[in-house]
Amino acid sequence: MTSIASKILNIDRRIIWVTCIALIVWPLVSPIGLPMKVDEITRKYYDAIESLPPGSIVLASIDIEAGLVGENGAQCTDTLQHLFDKDIKFIQICFYRADGAILFENLWLPKVDQRDKVYGVDWVNIGYIEGHETAMTAFAADFSYPVKDYYGNMLEGLQLMTEVKSMDDVDLYIDIAAGDCDQALRQFATPYDVPAITGAMAMGVPDMIMYMEAGIVTGILGGLPGAAQYELLLNKPGAAIRGMDALSVVHIFLLCLVIITNLAYFSLRSKGEIK
Amino acid sequence: MFVEGRIIQMLLMILTIVAIYFYTDAVKKGREVTIRPIPALDAIEEAVGRASETGRPVHFTPGYTLGGLYNPTMGPGVMAGITILSKVAEVTARLGTGIIVSLAQAEAVPLVEETLKVAYRAQNLEVPANAVRFISTEQYAYAAGILSILLEERPGANILMGYFWSESLQFAEGGSYVGAMQIGGTCSPSQIPFFVASCDYCLIGEELFAAKGYIDRDPASLGSLLASDILRSILIGIVIVSFLAFNLNIGLIIDLLRM
Amino acid sequence: MSNILKREVPLGLATVIIALLFFDYYVFTDITRNIALSIADWAIIITATAAGVGVLNMIIRTYQNISKRAEYWYLDIYMLVVMVVMAGTGLIGAYGTHPVFEWIMMNAYLPIDASIYAMVFFDIVSSYYRTFRVRSRDSAILFICAFIIMLKNAPLTGGMLPSFIPIGDWMLNIPSTAGSRAFIIVASIGVVAFTIRTMLQTERTTVGVVD
Question: What is the ipTM of this complex?
């Protein structure tokens, strides 16, 4: 028993990694179809877009880096599809990183059904603007500040950009970014009293909850689980729901691992073999 | 004329500016300031000593920012990390230990080189060759570069002080894998748990900004610390008053706080 | 360049600009608002220029490594070639629309970036296994909270054991929020103090003065 407990406490980490990989691959190859409940924060994210009347104008900052494609990718495509389906006009802009604009154009946009929406009338993609929070300040006050969109068109020639001059004309702000949403919330949501919803990494949800408690953010998508719940609400199962089986299985494995490790630890401690 | 909803903020800001000026002046004139012991900063000497005994270098990195040092929320964290580097460099110069500083901001390179020069010249030494390494402004290229340094150089001490993102745990685990003594510190709330779990010592939040005053006993930093304490006390008072006012529905105080 | 140009002028400019931006944030006048927006435009130009200076600095250092045949100097040549190709193709036409640029971004950069980030999972797992031992009362409380949150987040257990959801939600909404707020407030105080010290010119590390 002692040697078993000692072995449990000294498992080669590579064995744990290989086990995790196998447990992730198995449900992806052979889906289990585990049940899921929708969180309140996800429901509020969905309701924030669903409650907007057609023709509303949204400022979207769908700006994630390449590394977060797995975690936040489904949030981006599902949100875009929801906006297109609800006939909501939106302006897309990136402030955090240049590859966010490239991923929007090459990864997210091709995956959504744009229906009969017309570029320049129903949506505009401004692309990446250098300057981070300073650029946000300037843009929030004057939407014509970037001058051109991602494709090189003059903004003043786009019909949608003649309808909005600043954040005062926007009905909702959506931020799906790697982190540091607080810069955007400081510059877009709070000064102009515009409701905001955010798509965050799962580990960023506790930070975002405090903005929700303060009434600055009205809804949050929390990583892959949030995106999967959002797909349930949209009734459009996709990549996120497929990944949830793997997430469940690995969660349970890690919980069992830590329980067994602690039992082994207590066993050795009770015999005085470790402190 | 005054922006609605910001008058109380403005008064607090003016109070903070006056307090920083007043206390900086007071410390310059000899006022004693007592800072509670910060184990993570005291452990720098121990960490460098251990690295020196094993003949391995010390690795230091002040973290990653979006947009370099000009990022308003992350830049000060990195600058605070570079301040702590001055202490690390002073000890490595004194003990003759190698040092490697990895950076993700090109504009921080001259600042770090100057920091190392000042520390090493005080010991009549030259800064070791290739001590300052600018990796990349891309987050995961930076992470991969540092993991490579940890695995190749196998430092005896891994000091992570600044602003970090998700790569923080990669650095901490990499340092643990090569057997380095680790001291971590960040003002990023989501990464603090990882440092607390993986590092031997950890600076949490404000302790990172207090480091300069703790290490250098610089009057400006100490005065700023005292003023920050005043501001913190006022904010705690406002929180308590707001809590009572909103629950007891005292309209006058609610209106005053919303000014 | 004398110390006055290198240090005093930038510090003086910083004092004036910070004071002006503080004033504009709290007191609304057309003149200061226009100046503040103009300063924001200049800040963006300077940030972009600094990025370019950083690239130049990197090219110079890379060239020095190659000339000295430093360790892995051939990888520096590879990096320069990739940088020139990406910069060149990125500048052709609208940003990021050149086929070569797109191909490299989607087929090289994206998979590599995603892979490095995915490695974080393995580090989390090994850290979790190595450090998550109930050694004291505090770590026992931490373990119980983490246990409940993980059960809540895992869809299987969240769906089959719905009683964990309100407990997990309470933990996220109350104690976790309180802790996060405290961290954000103190970190913000630190940033504000740093800015005020820069304005009062008592913080000189930004201009390279190291005591």
Answer: 0.82
